[in-house]
Specification:
The structure holds 2 protein chains of 2 kinds. By secondary structure, chain A is α/β, with parallel strands linked by helices. Chain A has 20 helices and 21 strands. In chain A, the strands form 5 sheets. Chain A has a 7-stranded mixed beta sheet. By secondary structure, chain B is of the alpha/beta class. Chain B folds into 3 domains: 98 residues, Translation factors (Elongation Factor Tu (Ef-tu), domain 3, Beta Barrel), CATH 2.40.30.10; 118 residues, Rossmann fold; 87 residues, Roll (Ubiquitin-like (UB roll)), CATH 3.10.20.30. The chains are: A alpha/beta, B alpha/beta. The interface between A and B is large, with 95 and 75 residues. The structure holds flavin-adenine dinucleotide and FE2/S2 (inorganic) cluster.
Chain lengths: 508, 381
């Protein structure tokens, strides 16, 4: 029987980062991935003359050599930064909302951002300055917390990061109202909410602010050859470090040790049994406890049942046979909303017939050469907040898929006053069914567990130790302690990888 | 610029709330239901019908369509669904190896929901020849995931589709015609179907019985002149005779037909988005033969096998009895994605790899010919 110090299940962003960390810690590691490619959502696909990015709109917290973000620092430590060619995204975002008649283009850089906001919303400056001051404290507090592996000293927290503690239990809307931020400024500032997928009455302020400040101070980055380049760079590094990888290989069971109920091994889809005392699962606890493990402690079942799935994904990819200039598409990324009342908007996002939200990217505006001259590449993404796609029968599937795509195209054309429809050379559509199949996530969820008020970033980090309930089993990726998104998934892999190295060392 | 954030009238309340966050979360987690976690989810179940992966299937019936073509009707282990025009692999065990080839599905999508699927295959090549000579009712097969984008795309395609079919290239269009006739698909389908002689036409009787104002079939015979048939090759003149205005061309047939039609279509000045072609499997290449050593790593196993310069790396591996992944065999689907450790190679057809694949040295063995000894890492099938 083959024996490894650790098995990583799933080569998504979290699994890839965890594998490198384990190898760097001297462990013998097997990484298994059920797909034939690494990356999970972090991949690309070709259609005719276009190579589409499968998911990444922009990589947060990466920055440049001179202004490095935490993700770049992590990539440096993992030894992958220089294997990848990077691009910078030009502007932060353009947000358009029908109800409030908002059309705002926001730049990167705190000063520029505040100045632009003041232009759109005179009188917003003071509250915006306070927002960034809070956000800065939150970022420092989080850096401190990670540096002590989640075991923050309450006295230090209060003395150095008092504002973090003071605002730490509130939602985005609660804090912004306390800062007396004018409504329109709040509306423009909240544009990123759909990236985190919980509405602003529920979404933890610290989580949101920490994401925004990372975008605004460090800009956003993109690998030239789509996220597939990052994923292959990780694989390259894993091979350099002597890790074993099996693609087209699903882990079907995690065996438990009869004595302590902890991890004893892993069974692969071809029946191979791997002996190991450590597993890092880059998939949903729902799947691990629902079908991969036989003896699951009752408190683990309860804790897992208590959690709520975040948005189910839908994406439309278009290769167009005119240039962005000819089409009149000026910007890199757009958020289109019906309303900036995120509670109301969240509700509309529950059903196929009422969801008109989109986060849309024109990659040529960050990287003109991403598609052949005279063409444009765009991708449109939305989230469904309930399982309406579960009501779609197989025989209605293709029509529903096109109905939704049709609707997205129309919305973009109307809001941006452009014509895409007559220039579509390639089209591809991914639905919750696609995501369910591709990465195996329950109901086609692409954002892990929702960042609900009680299950937000801060309490998850504080309870990291407590959430680790089964010996030898840790999680990485969108469902774990850092929540979802590329950066978060890499960080969770980093954390779980390092913790597992510690576990292995302790066992001796 | 440091200000002190305060929300409650008494600042300590803010602190208290923060302190309570862990308690609150603990309480929520403990209050979760104690019923067993679901073993499956509705969306994932539907996904399993839309993307069934490999399915076991048994051959129910074989029908002979013409002297060299037969239709194999199979029952799959589960219902599934696909888009008319898509292909799937059909495979089985021959001797010691698993062999599979991609074929357009010739039956209607609707029937797949009742676990019925058909492939119409012309006798030629290794697997197709094997089927023709050996396959009989009751035989066990494996049917792969329905794949490919050679189907009607309502948002981008013109509602008027001109199908140009050469020989066995009729199969995806026969599926589409059935789907249009039964209401699954909604577009106007004009099929220009070229064959050598009347006897070579497969599905003529079936196509003629499909009664739908949206379907028109024109039979074009190259080697025979006959009443009721067009004579010659598929051409610009023929297209003009039957179609006008805006239309989407879909072609399925041999490479020689594509080369000829590409020139004919110039007359219409169609943008690339109006022309869709089904890709053909990459065959042998014509170079002076040489035999190289191909080292293949699959999991922790290593094999060294002979590889002919004329054949693709995939074919050499299959010839050696290695069970390796393949789907389209045309370089496009990426399913055979493998890592090159060393060696020189040539790609057959255009390079359809992703950018980062070329950068990090990955190849698609189905369209790669060896130019030297090679060493590669291949995932298990
Ligand atoms: C359309 C779209 C747009 C997005 N845009 C952005 C963006 O702009 N910025 C951003 O930061 N984030 C974005 N995200 C979110 C981001 O992609 C995810 O948060 C991140 O990729 C999650 O990484 P993960 O580690 O959870 O792995 P996943 O990508 O979920 O991968 C998990 C992997 O595990 C494998 N696996 C699962 N079970 C098993 C098993 N039993 N055995 C073997 N293998 C298994 C799966 O096949 C998969 O490869 C987007 C997501 C989508 C879908
Ligand atoms: S089998 Fe499709 S690319 Fe090789």
């Amino acid at each position: 029987m083959k024996n490894y110090d650790a098995v990583v299940i799933g080569a998504g962003n979290g699994g890839l980062a965890a594998t490198i960390r384990l190898l760097q810690g001297g462990a013998r590691v097997l990484l298994v991935e059920k797909h034939n490619l690494p990356g999970g959502f972090a991949t690309s696909f070709k259609r005719g003359r276009f190579e589409f990015e499968a998911s990444l709109h922009e990589l947060n917290d990466f920055g440049t050599k001179e202004n490095a973000g935490d993700v770049r620092d992590l990539f440096d430590q993992l030894g992958v930064t220089d294997k990848i060619e990077w691009l910078q995204i030009p502007d932060a975002y353009r947000v358009i909302s029908r109800e409030e008649k908002i059309d705002a283009l926001m730049p990167f850089g705190i000063e520029a951002f505040i100045a632009q906001m003041e232009k759109y919303v005179p009188g917003s400056r003071l509250s915006m300055e306070k927002f960034f001051s809070l956000a800065e404290t939150i970022r420092s507090a989080q850096a401190y917390t990670s540096s002590v592996n989640g075991k923050a000293d309450p006295k230090i927290m209060l003395s150095r990061y008092g504002n973090f503690v003071r605002c730490g239990s509130y939602s985005v809307n609660e804090v912004l109202k306390s800062l007396k931020m004018p409504k329109r400024a709040r509306d423009i500032l909240n544009a990123y909410w759909c990236y985190l997928g919980a509405h602003c009455d529920d979404l933890s302020f610290t989580h949101y602010a920490s994401m925004v400040i990372r975008y605004i101070t460090r800009g956003a980055a993109m690998p030239k050859s789509r996220s597939h380049e990052i994923s292959l760079a990780f694989v390259e590094r894993i091979r350099e470090l002597g890790g074993d990888i099996l693609f087209n290989t699903e882990a079907v069971k995690i065996l438990t040790d009869a004595e302590d109920g902890g991890v004893g091994g892993v069974i692969l889809d071809d029946g191979t049994e791997i002996k190991t005392r450590h597993v890092i699962a880059n998939c949903a606890p729902h799947l691990v406890y629902g079908k991969m493990m036989d003896r699951v402690p009752p408190e683990v079942v309860k804790a897992t049942n208590a959690r709520k799935f975040a948005g189910r994904g839908y994406s439309l990819f278009l290769g167009l046979d005119k240039s962005p200039d000819e089409l009149g598409i000026e910007n890199h990324n757009y958020f289109l909303y019906d309303t900036m009342d995120s509670v109301k908007q969240y509700d509309l996002m529950k059903s196929i017939r009422t969801n008109d939200v989109q986060a849309t990217v024109c990659l040529n505006r960050a990287y003109p050469e991403c598609s052949p001259e005279g063409t444009t590449m765009m991708y449109f993404t939305t989230l469904y907040m309930e399982d309406d796609w579960a009501n779609v029968k197989p025989e209605d599937y293709f029509k529903t898929k096109e109905f939704t795509a049709e609707r997205m195209i129309r919305r973009f054309e109307e809001d941006l006053n452009t014509n895409l429809r007559d220039h579509i050379e390639e089209i591809s559509i991914a639905t919750p069914m696609t995501y369910a199949r591709y990465c195996g996530h329950p109901q086609g969820t692409i954002y892990g567990y929702e960042s609900q008020y009680w299950d937000g970033l801060t309490p998850r980090l504080q309870m990291m130790d407590e959430d680790h309930r089964i010996r030898g089993l840790r999680f990485a990726g969108g469902y774990s302690m850092r929540l979802s998104g590329y950066s978060s998934a890499y960080f969770s892999g980093d954390i779980s990888g390092r913790q597992t190295v510690g576990d292995i060392k302790r066992e001796g | 610029m440091e200000f002190q954030f305060k929300r409650q009238i008494f600042g300590f309340m803010d602190l208290l709330r923060f302190k309570n966050m862990v308690k609150v979360r603990r309480k929520h987690l403990a209050a979760g239901s104690d019923r067993a976690l679901p073993a499956s989810y509705k969306v994932n179940e539907t996904a399993k019908i839309l993307h069934p992966g490999y399915m076991n299937a048994s051959l129910v019936r074989v029908e002979q369509n013409s002297a060299d073509t037969k239709t194999y009707i199979l029952e799959t282990e589960q219902p599934f669904y696909f888009r008319a025009g898509q292909y799937a692999t059909l495979g089985c065990r021959i001797g010691d190896s698993e062999v599979a080839r991609p074929y357009a599905i010739s039956s209607a999508p609707r029937e797949a929901l009742n676990k019925t699927v058909a492939f119409t295959v012309k006798k030629c090549g290794f697997f197709s020849g094997y089927l023709f000579d050996n396959a009989k009712a009751g035989d066990r097969f494996v049917v792969g995931d329905p794949s490919g984008t050679f189907h009607y795309e309502g948002i981008k395609d013109s509602r008027r589709v001109t199908a140009l079919a050469g020989g066995s290239g009729i199969t995806p269009f026969y599926s589409m015609a059935q789907a249009v006739a039964d209401g699954t698909e909604d577009f106007e389908l004009t099929i220009l179907y070229g064959a050598k002689t009347e006897a070579d036409l497969v599905f003529k009787a079936e196509l003629d019985t499909l009664k739908s104002p949206k379907i028109k079939v024109v039979y074009v015979l190259s080697d025979e002149t006959k009443e009721g048939y067009e004579h010659g090759f598929l051409s610009a003149d023929l297209i003009r005779k039957y179609i006008s205005g805006d239309f989407t061309v879909m072609m399925c047939g041999p490479e020689a037909m594509y080369a000829f039609l590409d020139k004919e279509l110039l007359a219409f000045n169609l943008p690339p988005r109006r022309i869709k072609k089904e890709a053909n499997c990459i065959g042998n290449r014509d170079v002076k033969d040489a035999v190289f050593n191909l080292t293949v790593h699959i999991g922790d196993k290593e094999f060294t096998i002979p590889a002919s310069a004329n054949e693709t790396v995939l074919t050499s591996m299959e010839r050696a009895g290695l069970n390796v992944p393949s789907k389209c065999r045309a370089g496009g689907c990426g399913f055979c994605h493998s890592k090159l450790i060393n060696g020189q190679f040539t790609i057959g057809g255009s390079d359809k790899r992703r950018l980062a694949d070329s950068k990090f040295g990955y190849i698609h063995p189905c369209c790669t010919y060896p130019d030297s000894d090679m060493s590669i890492i291949v995932p298990k099938a």
